[in-house]
Structures are given as C-alpha cells and as structure tokens.
Design a protein that fits this description.
By secondary structure, the chain is of the alpha/beta class. The chain has helices at residues 11-18, 26-31, 40-50, 59-72, 79-87, 130-135, 173-180, 185-195, 207-214, 218-221, 239-243, 258-261, 272-275, 292-305, 353-356, 384-393, 399-407, 416-433, 441-466, and strands at residues 22-24, 92-101, 115-118, 123-128, 144-152, 158-165, 227-231, 248-252, 255-256, 278-282, 288-289, 307-308, 316-317, 321-327, 361-364, 380-382, 408-410, 479-481. A hairpin with a 4-residue loop joins strand 3 and strand 4 (123-128). One of its GO terms (biological process) is proteolysis.
Length: 482
C-alpha cells in the first residue's frame, strides 16, 4: 500500500509533457512567500517570472523574490502612502486581486460605468476602461490577480490605466487528456497529489489515503457538488482551498451571515455562493451562524436545486460547490469517538437529516495522515494556477457523467439522492484520474465507484442512526459496475 520508490516519480516526464506549465515544488516551499500570505497560484507564477530554474532557491534568490514582493504587494496599511504617491503624479504598479462591478441605477439617463475594486487596499472605486473589462471578462466574476497600473486623473479620480493578468484563462482539455495518456494511473495519481502540494513518495500515504486527499478536488471538478470533511487537526484540510484559485472562497472563523452567503438586502450585492465556483466553510465547529433559521432554509433549497432566494429577490442560480470542513476527536485506535453521530460537536442544525441528506458525501479525513514537514511536495508538479483552471474547466465536460450513467447499476432500494450523490462523486474521480476516459471496468470500480460509494455510505450511516425514516431502505448502499 506504500507509494513507490523515489526513482519512479516521473519528474522528467512531467517536464517533457507539460513544459512551462510545470514547476519544481521546492521553489515555492523555499521562497518564504507562504509566510508573506501569497497564495501558491500567484507565488509560483512570480517565482518562475523572476528566477527561472529548478531546485530550492538560494539565499540571494530568496532575497530577490521577497524584495520584489515587498515592493509590488501592498499591505492594507499602505493605502495612505500609495494615495499620497498618486496625488504626486506617480504611476503605481502593484500586484493584487482586482474585481470589477457594474452598479445598475434606476434613475438618470447615464449608462453606468464599470468600477474596479482592490480588496487588499480597501479601495472600492477606481475608474477602469471598458476595453480592459471586455478583454478580461473574469474581472466581472471572481476577479483576477495581476499587475495593476494606477494613476490619478486630473479630476481626482484614480484610474486603472493598464492590467496584466497572470492566471491561466483558457484550458485546452483535449491537450490535457492527451497529456494524461502519457502517464500510468499510478504516475498520474502521484502527479495530482504533488500538484496539490503533497509529497507522494513518503510511505505514510497509502494509495487509499492519497485518494482521500484527491477527493478534496471533487468540488472543483463537479459543479453544485457539496461535501463535508471531518478530520482531526493537522491533516491539511484547508491547504488546497487556500492556494489553488481565487475562484475558491474560504471562510475561516467569524460570523456567517445570510448577506455574506446569499445576497445583501441593502446594496443588492450577490453573496459568495453566487460569485464563486467553490465556497469553503472552515472550522465549522467554531463558526458563528447569524440567524441560523435564515441560513438553513435557503441553504437546503440551494443544496437541492442550485437556486436560492432571500429578502424578496428573484431566484439566483449558481453552480457553486459548498464544502464544510470540521475537526473531530479520535479515539486510541484513531477512529472517530462517536461513529454513529459524527456531527455531534457541530452546530445543531447540521444534524438535521433534511440538510445532511443533501450532501454528496462525508470525506473520512481520519484516514488521512497528519500533514508533517516531510509531507511537503519536493517533486515537479503542475503550476497551481494551471492545475486549478484545468480542474475547474472539467466541470463543463458532460462525457464523464454519461460514462458513469452507462457503467453503474444500483440496487432497487437505493434512494434517488444516494444514486445521484454516488454518480456525481464517481464522475469527479473520473475527471481527476482519467481525464482521457481510457480505463477498464476494473479501473472504474476500484478508483471511482468504490470511493464514491464510501463517501455516500458515511452519510447514509449518520442518517440511519439519526432518523428512523431512513431505516426502511436498509443501511448498506449497493452499486456495481455494469
């Protein structure tokens, strides 16, 4: 069950097949940029731009990279310094996330102009040309990271005069599938694992444990895919979500309000579920849910239908996936202390069966080893920005769902929700491990269907013990390859 020897990881093959889309993962880990709060999908691009090569960065390289970051990455308390420089006629060039909004007004005959915001500086309104917005349409969605050039115009308004994004925007899934065909399944699994930031060559991660780590990618490759992960502290639950893409929103600590999740009734701003591809609620056991009744109703509706409404607004549709991450305690055998009620330490409404039944699965994070220093990737993996965009692009490919439908049969007592959940999970594993769709029925059963059943079975186990209504169909879910 241990991963194979160091000499078998295909570093040179990864470089040969993916070229500039690959990177030695030691470069980011040695750069110190993680401590500077720069996510991987930004940092790896920067490092490759500033200092090309392989292996860990030397002292001079680290200093060069960090000097660049100090100058180019503004801090929140730099706002007034930068504003002063703008008033003195300087053109500022910074690297940050920029978003664009168009506020439609009911009065007046002027067509509203787009307005740019830079969250890291608390700058809410910058003028931006329509040509830039048309060129980079994702500015209107989750926003884009890039090099922003700012200047103050004669009327005293700050304007974005240029923007150079450095995130992958277009992914060729045909070429991605061709690339997959040059790797064995074991090699590809380890490439995915490494690209997530994990070291596939240490013995602590069995094939099963690797598959559960890869299961964290299911909400990225499947739209409207909702899952919980329950695990002890220190397994790296939130790491991939913090670093893979700005299309993933992570809420960790603080209050979760209806306005933040759904829609703000005051300014009509769409909430996180309507703007992102994945929303992650981290440390769920310690989050404060403001007005739970106002959250749970719309949330149950959204999990079931992909639509929600609030405060009298029309229904809002979204393909955003929702992820819940929570810490649980284990016993001496490293099993959950209460396997029959895994949710007992979470806010009470999580044990409401109508809500729980709407999740595709519960990921058994207790079967994933603790994330230690030696677990950090040291091989050549895919650049995180490319990796994240490739995963998200797979959401739009319906061939995988068709494959699952044609190759899976269920027992007559399996509920519709069970079937749909298993099919969605199996489709997601297909996209992650077999994006070229070249596999045998045995491959499908082992790598896709069986883990998909396990994810849903853990949900079924909880429902079975929480509500007698769920006992009529039995406890065990039966599905097989046809």
């Amino acid at each position: 069950m241990n991963s194979y020897n160091h000499s078998n990881y295909p570093n040179e093959l990864v470089r040969e097949v993916f070229g500039d889309l690959s990177i030695d993962k030691r470069r980011f880990n040695s750069s110190g940029l993680k401590n500077a709060g720069v996510p991987s999908f930004v940092a790896e691009w920067l490092i490759d731009k500033i200092i090309q090569g392989n292996g860990e960065l030397g002292i001079a390289d680290i200093e060069k990279v960090n000097n660049f970051v100090r100058k180019a990455f503004p801090r929140k308390d730099d706002r007034h310094v930068l504003n002063f420089k703008l008033t003195q006629g300087e053109v500022l060039k910074i690297i940050a996330l920029m978003q664009v909004r168009v506020r439609l007004e009911n009065k007046g005959d002027r067509i509203p102009e787009p307005v740019a915001s830079i969250p890291s500086l608390n700058i809410e309104e910058c003028r931006i040309g329509v040509d830039l917005v048309e060129r980079y349409e994702n500015l209107l969605r989750q926003g884009l990271w890039g090099k922003i050039s700012l200047s103050m115009q004669s009327d005293g308004i700050v304007e974005v005069i240029d923007f150079d994004p450095f995130q992958c925007s277009e992914i060729n899934l045909t070429e991605y599938a061709k690339a997959r065909s040059q790797f064995t399944t074991e090699q590809w699994r380890d490439l995915m694992f490494c690209s997530m930031g994990f070291n596939p060559e240490i013995s602590a991660y069995s094939t099963t444990a690797k598959n559960w780590v890869l299961a964290r990618l299911l909400p990225l490759v499947e739209s409207n895919y909702h899952i919980m992960e329950l695990a002890p502290k220190g397994t790296g639950k939130s790491f991939i979500f913090e670093n893979i893409s700005n299309k993933v929103a992570l809420i960790s600590g603080g209050k979760v309000t209806p306005a933040r999740l759904f829609i703000n009734g005051k300014n009509k701003e769409i909430g996180l579920l309507g703007r992102h591809d994945v929303v992650v609620l981290d440390e769920v056991q310690s989050l404060t849910f403001e007005n739970p009744d106002e959250i749970i109703g719309p949330l149950k509706n959204y999990l079931a239908s992909g639509r929600y409404n609030r405060s009298g607004f029309a229904d809002i549709s979204s393909d955003c996936s929702l992820v819940m991450l929570a810490n649980i305690e284990l016993d001496e055998q490293l099993r959950p202390r209460n396997e029959f009620n895994l949710l007992q330490d979470l806010p009470k409404f999580f044990s409401e069966t109508a809500l729980l039944d709407r999740f595709a699965g519960i990921l058994p994070g207790w079967e994933i080893p603790k994330f230690k220093t030696e677990a950090i990737a040291t091989q050549v993996g895919l650049k995180t920005d490319f990796f994240g965009e490739a995963l998200l692009a797979l959401r739009r490919d319906n061939r995988f769902a068709s494959y699952v439908s044609q190759h899976t049969s269920f027992d007559k007592n399996t509920t519709i929700r069970d079937q749909q959940a298993i099919q969605r999970s199996a489709s997601g594993f297909l996209k992650i491990l077999y994006p070229h769709l070249e596999l045998t029925p045995i491959d499908y059963q082992r790598d896709c269907l069986e883990p998909a059943i396990r994810l849903r079975q853990i949900v079924r186990d909880q429902l079975y013990h929480l509500d007698d209504e769920f006992k009529q169909n039995g406890k065990i879910i039966y599905a097989e390859v046809k």
